[in-house]
Write a structure and sequence with these properties.
The protein has helices spanning 16-27, 34-42, 46-71, 88-97, 107-114, 128-146, 158-172, and strands at residues 5-9, 30-33, 76-79, 98-104, 149-152. It has a single domain, classed as P-loop containing nucleotide triphosphate hydrolases (Rossmann fold, 3-Layer(aba) Sandwich), CATH 3.40.50.300. The model has no long low-confidence stretch (mean pLDDT 88). It is built from seven helices and five strands. The chain is globular. The chain is α/β, with parallel strands linked by helices.
């Protein structure tokens, strides 16, 4: 496999972090979660950043984090935030800095996986399903635009999915 970053993009609840951790181990790479790195550097959680700086402030931090991560040429598996594709600059970085995997999931899967989640600022509303539907409609074309591989995250166990994904990624590299 040609060493390069592997970016996991997709909606919240698609399994980017869970599958990404397994994938990194299987491929012998480091794993980085963009949201966790932002929290570590800010010394605050994503909800606090959204509350204090708004979504625009968070997106600025997210873009800077992406730039910092790709500057390190050591290949790694990078789980991005669901909204990273909203920026044209971020999409260009993703497409030119490694292999981009769109982890897709159905509307029903996303609703089920996020129904108890209290950590996602965009879902702290009464109409969670409406928000998820709108996010899918807005972002799915952007995920498809940047993806080298579209991979359904399905309902299989994360490790099994990661093994299948590792095979697919290896075939592309």
């Amino acid at each position: 496999m040609k060493p390069q970053h592997i970016f996991l993009v997709g909606p919240m609840g698609a399994g980017k972090t869970t599958i990404g951790k397994h994938l990194a181990i299987l491929l012998g790479l480091s794993f980085i979660d963009v949201d966790s790195e932002i929290e570590a550097r800010a010394g605050a959680d994503i909800q606090w950043i959204f509350d204090m700086e708004g979504e625009a402030g968070f997106r600025e931090r997210e873009s800077k984090m992406l730039i910092d991560l790709v500057a390190d040429k050591e290949p790694k598996v990078i789980a991005t935030g669901g909204g990273i594709v909203l920026s044209g600059d971020n999409r260009a970085i993703l497409q030119t800095s490694g292999l981009v995997v769109y982890l897709s999931a159905t509307f029903e899967q996303l609703v089920e996986r996020t129904k108890r989640d209290k950590a996602r600022p965009l879902l702290q509303v009464d109409d969670r399903e409406g928000v998820i539907k709108q996010l899918i409609e807005t972002r799915s074309p952007l995920y498809n635009q940047v993806a080298d591989l579209v991979f359904p995250s399905g309902s299989t166990q994360p490790l099994k999915l990661a093994k299948k994904l590792a095979e697919a990624v290896s075939a592309l590299c």
